[in-house]
Every structure is written in C-alpha cells, then in structure tokens.
C-alpha cells in the first residue's frame, strides 16, 4: 500500500505479474500501468517553472525510478491504490560532498571531473516540529509562514497511523504560536449581535416570532426576546479560535508521544498561556458568519489563525473524539523543508541580533531575483543564501555559488549596502551540516566561523546544525 522514502532518496519500482507481495516496490500489472509521471501534483511555481514534490522517471517497460525531492509529506502515487510517503530524514554524509566540492580551488576542473562517489548513507530524522516552534516563536509576519504546507482537501484522504501523521502536529504548532501572538496583543473586540430574553426591558429589536414562542404563548408577559449589538471580545472570531484550541489541547493530551523532548514542554506552556484568555468567550458558533468577517491590519494574525484552524477542524471532521483515534486519515500534503530551513536561519539571526534586526532583511527582492537574507549593517554587509538542497553534483553546487555571487553584483543590492564601485560584497552560503558545532549567530561572528569557498573571492560557507530526533526519542 505504501512506498516509504526519505528526502532526496531514489528507489526503483518494478512490474510484478504476481501482484503486490512482501516486496512493496513491486507493483501489480494494474497499478504499474496507472503510474503516470504527468499526474504528479505541482507543489509550487517558482521562476517560471513547476516544482514537484517527487519525480518519476521511466527506465523501461518494466521499471521506473521514484525520487523524492526536499519536501516531506504523503500523497497518492496511484489514487486509492498506492501511496508515497517521504519522511523528514536527511543524509548527514552529503555535507562532506559539499565541503569537498567547495574546497576545490579550480571549479572548471571540478565540473569536468567525475562526481565524487557518494559516501555511506547515514540518516538522521530532523525535528521539524522544533524548527517550526523556533520559527513561529519569532513572531514573523504571517505572510512568511502561510505557504509552508500544501494540502489537497479535494482528493480522497489517505489512511495512516497517528505516529505517521506529520501534518496535524505541524498545523497544531502553527495555530498555537499564532494564537499566542493574538493573546499577547489582546483579543479583538468588535460589535456582535446577541439574542437574549430580557426582563422588564427592551434592547435593539424584538424578534417577534421567537418572542411569541418563548414568552407570549407561555404567559411570560414581563419578558421580551430581543436582538441587540454588544461591543466586546465574545465575537464569532474568538469563539471559533476557542473551539480550535479545545481540539488542539485534546489532540496534544491524547498524543503526547508525537511531541518529543522539549517540544511537549513548549507546547504545554503555549496552551497554558492561551487558555485563560478564552474563559469568558462563549461556545455557541455559526461558522457561516466567519465569511462576513473583515480582518483588521492590526489584528492580521486572525486571518491566518482562522485559516489554519479550519484545516485542523477539517482534519478531525469537526469531531472531538477523532483526536484520540490511533488510525486516522489525512489529506495529501507536502511540507516545504527548504523554506523551513530559510526561515530557521533567518530567525536564528534575529534571535542573536535583536539590536540589529532592522539591518537583517528577509526575501530582499530585486529585478525578479529574491535573496534569502541581506545584511546591511555597516561593517557586516553580507548576502546570505540558505541552501537546504545539498546537491551532490558538482555542476549544480557551483551553479548555486555563482547565483549568490551574482546577487551581490545587482545594483539594487549594492545601493542598499552603499557599496563602493570597486568593492566586492561578501557572500555566505548556509547549509545543513549535522556534524557542525553550535555557535552564536551574532553578525560579527558569522564570517569568523565560516570557511572560504576556495575558487571564489569573498564567498564563504557555514554549516548549520539542525535539531534532530535521537533514537531514544528526545530531540537534540
């Protein structure tokens, strides 16, 4: 039923007349015939080209290769028949190839020579939930995090176990961190309608039909059923957020094993921080009213929190008991790990340099080019490219280096940094290296910790250690 892969790993899938047996990589004649490379969903469109979460390459009539890219998720390979699932595991040995290539003083020779032999594969599972917690805790603008995951609600859902479900914990953390920002600011207050039976008074307008049923026919002459407006926090948006929070708390309590190490402690603190703010918020909810809500620029987190909340409720079919099930269904989804890595690098820089945050620019855009991070602090000018994609082909590595070096020559970038005509701007490539030593991300420390890329002037590389899940179950 399922083909399990890790990021950027390939596997050969072959035709088996005998049908699906013990070997899950052998497909029956019916299923094999239905595998179509043209039916792979497009994850996103970037710079005029389609980005796919995985690739299919036909080798011959009996075999094709299936290659995962840098996206974590689960999807149908053949609808209703065969599933592909990509786990958040990274080959820790690829960093050695990147280092060897960038240490070569002659890139042209490097391009002409055969690729390095791949070292023995050694996988570690990335703690993507801890990375997301760090990112969301930084309080970034919601536009930075709203497209981290692609979910297809229009396709039939895929049966998985709670332990295999990568989507729900991701959405829960997104929601709780957004809710924390909302609670910190203070819940949004607005005018909302209240329907209530009032004694010896009238407010707003009398609901004639309801008043007849509840009061006149029951001889309650002193009571009047009215509808009137109130200004306060007990509005439809906050009632919806309270409902999602109940689902989130129930899910966490029923699935504590999914949140390893410090993640559970952090998430518990988040729920304890948010719950008191909703104690005076009602439970009655008509979600159709959400369609009429207008979002304020000051309360911009509401829009994304409600969008993520809807996904959470839809995931559990609006049934609280579903949060305790061990066998569940999930829509096809893909998590953008390269984008997650970019944001992780950016938030680490913000955290280490709170006094210089105005000099740290994320997604600086110019002439159709987008830089991951631009540092404009005088004396620390730097163009940073976060490369989660550790390509082991030498040509691709040098192409990436030349790309970031090209950014440094754009006039808009040079003007932003007030660079002199003959001055070369330093470039830094940050890449995942599970053997790297943790260090301070202070701006003055970056280039001291970085290594030069041998073939280029003022181009540096810096390995970043990502949190991983150890075999004992605790993240590190």
Automatic annotation (TrEMBL):
The top of its lineage is: Bacteria, Pseudomonadati, Bacteroidota, Chitinophagia, Chitinophagales
Which InterPro entries would you find in this protein's record? McrC
Protein's name according to its UniProt entry: McrBC 5-methylcytosine restriction system component
């Amino acid at each position: 039923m399922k083909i399990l892969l890790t990021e950027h790993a390939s596997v050969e899938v072959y035709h088996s007349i005998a049908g699906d047996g013990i070997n899950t990589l052998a497909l029956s004649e019916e299923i094999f015939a239905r595998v179509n490379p043209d039916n792979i969903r497009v994850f996103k469109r970037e710079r005029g080209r389609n980005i796919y979460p995985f690739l299919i390459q036909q080798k011959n009539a009996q075999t094709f290769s299936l290659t995962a890219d840098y996206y974590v998720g689960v999807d149908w390979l053949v609808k209703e028949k065969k599933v592909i699932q990509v786990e958040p595991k990274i080959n820790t040995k690829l960093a050695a190839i990147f280092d060897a290539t960038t240490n070569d003083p002659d890139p042209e020779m490097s391009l002409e020579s055969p690729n390095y032999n791949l070292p023995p594969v050694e996988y570690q599972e990335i703690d993507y939930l801890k990375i997301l917690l760090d990112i969301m805790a930084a309080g970034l603008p919601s536009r930075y995090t709203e497209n981290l995951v692609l979910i297809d609600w229009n396709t039939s859902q895929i049966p998985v176990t709670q332990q295999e479900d990568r989507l729900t914990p991701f959405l829960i953390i997104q929601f709780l961190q957004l809710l924390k920002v909302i609670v910190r600011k203070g819940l949004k207050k607005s005018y909302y309608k209240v329907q209530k039976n009032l004694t010896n008074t009238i407010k707003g307008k009398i609901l004639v039909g309801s008043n007849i049923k509840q009061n006149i026919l029951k001889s309650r002459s002193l009571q009047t059923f009215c509808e009137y407006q109130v200004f306060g926090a007990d509005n439809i948006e906050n009632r919806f957020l309270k409902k999602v929070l109940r689902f989130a708390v129930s899910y966490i309590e029923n699935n504590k094993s999914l949140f390893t190490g410090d993640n559970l402690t952090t998430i518990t603190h988040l729920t304890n921080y948010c719950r008191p703010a909703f104690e005076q918020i009602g439970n009655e909810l008509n979600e159709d009213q959400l369609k009429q809500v207008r979002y304020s620029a000051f309360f911009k987190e509401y829009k994304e929190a409600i969008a993520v909340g809807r996904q959470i409720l839809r995931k559990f079919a609006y049934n609280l008991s579903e949060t305790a099930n061990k066998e569940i269904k999930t829509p096809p989804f893909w998590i953008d790990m390269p984008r997650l890595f970019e944001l992780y690098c950016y938030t680490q820089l913000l955290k280490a340099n709170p006094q210089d945050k105005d000099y740290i620019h994320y997604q600086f855009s110019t002439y159709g080019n987008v830089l991951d991070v631009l540092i404009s602090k005088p004396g620390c000018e730097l163009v940073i490219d976060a490369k989660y994609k550790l390509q082991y082909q030498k040509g691709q590595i040098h192409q990436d280096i030349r790309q970031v070096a090209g950014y440094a020559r754009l006039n808009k970038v040079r003007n932003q940094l007030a660079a002199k005509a003959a001055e070369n701007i330093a470039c830094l490539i940050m890449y995942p290296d599970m053997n790297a030593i943790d260090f301070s991300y202070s701006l003055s420390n970056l280039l001291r910790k970085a290594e030069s890329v041998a073939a280029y002037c003022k181009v540096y590389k810096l390995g970043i250690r990502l949190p991983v899940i150890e075999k004992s179950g605790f993240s590190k």
